Amino acid sequence: MAQASGGAARPVLEVEGITKAFPGVVANDDVSLTLNQGEIHCLLGENGAGKSTLVNMVFGLYRPDQGTIKVRGEEVHFEDSGDAIARGIGMVHQHFQLIPVFTVAENIILGNEVTKGAFLDLDSARRQIDSLAERYGLAVDPDATVGELSVGEQQRVELVKALFRDADILILDEPTAVLTPGEVDDFFGVVESLTGQGKSIIFITHKLREVLAVADRITVLRAGRVVGTATAEGATQQSLANLMVGRDVVFRVDKGEADPGAPVLRTQGLRVADDRGVETVTGFDVEVRAGEIFGIAGVEGNGQRELVEAVCGMRPTAGGRVEMLGQETTDWSPRKITELGVAHVPENRSKHGVVAQYTIADNLVLNRYHHRKFSQRGVRNTAAINAEAQELVEQFDVRTPGVDAVIDTLSGGNQQKVIVARELTGDIKALVVAQPTRGLDVGSIEFIHRKIIELRDQGVAVLLVSAELDEILSLSDRIGVLYRGRLAGTVNAADATREELGLLMATGSSEGQR
Amino acid sequence: MTTVEHAAGASGASGRVGLDRQSITGLVFGLLGIALLAGVAPAISGSGRRFNFEPPPDPAGIGFHPPTWVIAIGVLFLLTAVLGFAPPEARRWASPARLLSALAVIPLLLVLSLALSDNPSTNIVNLFNESLVLATPLALGATTGLWCERSGIINIGIEGTMLAGAGIGYMTYATIGDAQSTGWLWFSILISVLAGGLVAALLAVLSIRFGVNQIVGGVVINLFALGLTGFLRSEVIVKTGITTGVGTSEFGLPLLSEIPVIGDQLFRGKPIYWMMYLVVIGTWLVMFRTPWGLRVRSCGENPHAAETLGVNVVRIRYQSVILGGLIAGLAGAWFSMESQTRFEDNMTNAAGFIALAALIFGKWTPWGAFGGALLFGFSRALGTRLQFLGVEVSGFEIPSEFLQALPFVVTLVVVAGAVGRSIPPAAAGQPFQRSK
Predict the structure, then answer these.
(1) Are residues A189 and A270 in the same domain?
(2) What does the pLDDT average to over B183-192?
(3) Contact A189/A137 with Cβ under 8 angstroms?
(4) Is the domain of B134 the same as that of B217?
(5) Does A106 touch chain B (CB under 8 A)?
(6) Minimum-distance CB partner of A113 among B9, B294, B301
(7) Which residue of A has its CA nearest to B308?
(8) Domain count within chain A
(9) Spatial CA neighbour of B351 closest among B137, B49, B34
(10) pLDDT averaged over chain B?
(11) Shortest Cα distance from A3 to chain B (angstroms)?
């Protein structure tokens, strides 16, 4: 790979010809990459492209089958991550590696403890953490219990943890996947202040907008191989997406005019409480008609979760009513609502969407296993289930070794396709879908969006809840903004602008507040 | 639409119904309080009851009036009950009140048993000391469990580890020291400790190296130890003919044992008993104040996070489990060379399992575990005491088996209500696979 930024660049990390195979897959095939002092190098690729495998080798968690890794010109062979840490490499994992019951300080010093004699010296650890926090603008409270912190705060703890070990090469594995849009902006600020102080960063992501916002250089991986490198100036979202997926990607969702019919889903004065008993849905009225997509935008935590769960029967209502297909369905059981022809793609994929340890086939019939087709007199008809599963796997392009594979072994995108396949099959009249493409790669997003549009065109009423404003704008026919548990405003998607919606989301009013 | 997990809805609903743990505990205390005030206090005799502080003859002590005590405790219970249903702003007093009420059960049991007995007095300092002594193997066993579970290995083989320590230690003492020599006694206690470490090492290899289910591994250890020690007893100890001998002897702590009245009863004891305190204090210091202790706890909570920080999870788990085994071996020596000087089949008699209960009561902390052990030690001591006192209710003598079990039942119920939910280390029981 060529040096992009000319003679002044000083490589701090050079990966050359790395190959790593796991049973059945070659995760990395002859991958090379150079990270220069003070740069942000984005590693871009779809889920399963081998990004995490690569950086886990750089961090000493995996050992490469072939190839070399050089840190500041010197070849290294890491036995464990302790060796990598000793060479100044720090990593923030996609799934935080924190201990929830420990304090921030305990989490940070673990493995690298500050001692006075034989004992821990938490006082001086606290001072060191405070000074790091101040230097890099990463506010953390050393005495807080990590489990009680927000996701954004936990991420700062992870960063301080790496800096505490004097890391000057930082690997950030999908750091923005868990953050809200506001937190993402703060995070970019932190990243720039880090490189400003001489740190070098490998930034893993599959969000193109972010890549173009922060990257100095970009390496694109596909199926374990490097398929291209670019500088941020020379790249566009389109060019990167095509490289990532290996074909032309359509960003615009093609859809015709909606042809709305009779009202299918209606709520009146709906009120719902969250787990703590606080009412987060506070009088929500909506009417979704057949053949239209009603998008609900809003900053997360404004009652989206409780609203969806109440409509689908998973959470008791505190007041108001829900009607579907002309019947009152308030506080019906999920099974009864399902049988009415209402599909639900839940926000929390692993908790409410699949049974992680079940096979793909069993997951595909979770909502229909008791129907005559799949079970007779209390005995499951495995042949029918497998035949159905086989058909759905092909129809929905689920990439899997077979329908009897445990679903937990699939990537997030493929799990989501299984859920969508299950929910969209059968005689569907309404679809409630929450964060349908969270954490998915470009190819899967495109596929799922197309399916939702198809359903609308068949006359299904769709209630779409998403934190991605782009998703709301490109799919919806009408858009409502949820603010503090009620609709702050409804606009036609054709007339909606990002600015107007952003204002509604932030203040609950289109005039804004001075 | 599919709901894989209905818990979200269920938890939302439980907020509406008021019958949570607190309310149920409040209700129980309320009923107990009413029973004490209306039923018990008027029915028991009042005069001449005494708590003594030293053995007869002519012991120092205080007299007390049982109905007054019963009424006081009954009022406390009622208050606790009322606070359980009080408006939210008063609820912060509810939790200390529950704890106080739970603790009040101990004097209540004492007062009631004396009031219902023919014997008007009993020595309570001595009762307290017996509780501490009987808590020794339980506290040691709970500490064993603490080390194992905090590092992520569930050890239900504590019972077997203790038994092996007891049996192998006494066998050594009988064969090479004729169960008479002090020098060999200490050597044999050391052998007990090492035997415990060895048995624990077996559990460690099974569960860490081979990833055997840890519960199954523990059961295997228990059965193995029972068989092994039974064999040793019949083939080795019985053949020497030395079925008993000289065990460890009591000594008083300097200065403290000179305190009048209570000093000689509370601050005299045998060596393993004193070592128990050192083990508990040492465990607390090492586990919560040293780098190694921090690493042990991290392995029990999130071993993968520990691994990413360069902590050698496998080594830490081996070390912790074996350290725990050494402590269980010491507890074994208490049975066969301190409490008694003999070895009998199954002599530990489920102490290892009670130790686990103490650990859970104590919420996986050293002092909590010690408190749990003390509670069970007290239950056992009181049960024995009640037998001697002979408790009668309206002319009917309560069977001694029931009296022995009663304190356990009462403490279990009350503590379950007052202590509440106890959360184990997150990774306890999960095998750990190093990344490749």
Answers:
(1) no
(2) 95
(3) yes
(4) yes
(5) yes
(6) B294
(7) A81
(8) 2
(9) B137
(10) 86
(11) 31
* Cα–Cα distance, B227 to B346 (Å, whole number): 10
Determine the pLDDT at residue A265. 94
CA B177/CA B189 separation, integer angstroms: 12
- Say whether residue A432 is in contact with chain B using an 8 A CB cutoff: yes
Please give the residue of chain B at the shortest CA–CA distance from A349: B4
Total domains in chain B come to: 2
Helix (H, G, I), strand (E, B) or coil at A24: coil
Q: Do A110 and B301 touch (CB under 8 A)?
A: no
pLDDT class of B420 with cuts at 50, 70, 90: low
Please name the helix (run of DSSP H) or strand (run of DSSP E) that holds residue B329, with its range, or none.
Answer: helix B313-333
Give A350's DSSP letter: I
Tell whether B90 and B180 lie within a shared domain: no
On whether residue B3 sits in a domain, the answer given is no
pLDDT for A250 equals 67
Any idea what the CATH number is for the domain that residue A155 is in? Answer: 3.40.50.300
> Tell me: the pLDDT tens digits for A234-248?
888 888 888 887 877
Average pLDDT over residues A57-63: 92
Mean per-residue pLDDT, B185-213: 95
Least reliable range by pLDDT among A37-41, A501-505, B72-76, B348-352: A501-505
pLDDT at B435 over 80: no
Q: Calculate what percentage of chain A has a pLDDT beyond 70.
A: 96
For position B418, what pLDDT does the model report?
Answer: 65
Q: Do B1 and A56 touch (CB under 8 A)?
A: no
Q: Where would I find the beta strands (DSSP E) of A154-292?
A: 169-173, 200-205, 217-222, 225-231, 263-273, 279-289
Q: Quick one: B241 and B267 in the same domain?
A: yes
What are the Cα distances from residue B243, in Å, to B16, B168, B225, B248, B343? 64, 14, 20, 16, 7
Tokens at A453, concatenated: 């549009």
Band (pLDDT 50/70/90 cuts) for residue B405 is confident
Start-to-end Cα distance in chain A = 52
Neighbours of A387 (CB within 10 A): 13
Give A18's strand partners. Answer: A31
Give A355-404 pLDDT, tens digit per residue: 988 999 999 999 888 888 898 888 999 999 999 999 999 988 888 888 88
Show the domain range for B70: 18-115
Write out the two tokens for A284: 């929500």
Question: In terms of residues, how long is chain B?
Answer: 436
Q: Are residues B60 and B196 in the same domain?
A: no
Q: Are the beta carbons of A309 and B9 separated by less than 8 Å?
A: yes
Full residue range of the structural domain in which residue A146 is found? 11-245
Residue A4: the pLDDT is 42
Residues B65 and B185 in one domain: no
Same domain assignment for residues B276 and B370: yes
Domain end position, chosen among A245, A280, A301? A245
Query: Can you tell me the distance from the alpha carbon of B110 to that of B103, in angstroms, rounded to the nearest whole number?
Result: 12
Q: Where do we find the tokens 């507040």?
A: A513
Q: What phi-psi label fits residue B429: left (phi over 0), alpha (psi between -120 and 50 degrees) or beta?
A: left
Last residue of a domain, one of A245, A271, A298: A245
Taking CA atoms, what residue in B is nearest to A340? Answer: B1
Q: Does A277 touch chain B (CB under 8 A)?
A: yes
Question: Is omega for the bond preceding B399 within 30 degrees of 0, making it cis?
Answer: no
Is there a domain that residue A481 lies in? yes
The C-alpha atoms of residue A30 and residue A20 are separated, in whole angstroms, by 9
- On whether residue A327 sits in a domain, the answer given is yes
pLDDT digits (tens, 9 = 90+) for B366-403: 999 999 899 889 888 888 887 777 777 767 777 878 87
Q: Based on the domain organization, do B88 and B218 belong to the same domain? A: no
In a domain, B425, yes or no: no
**Is B144 found in the same domain as B109?**
no
pLDDT at A447: 87
Judged by CB atoms closer than 8 Å, whether chains meet at B301 and A102 is answered as: yes
Give CA–CA dist B377/A411, Å, rounded. Answer: 53
Strands A200-205, A169-173: pairing is parallel
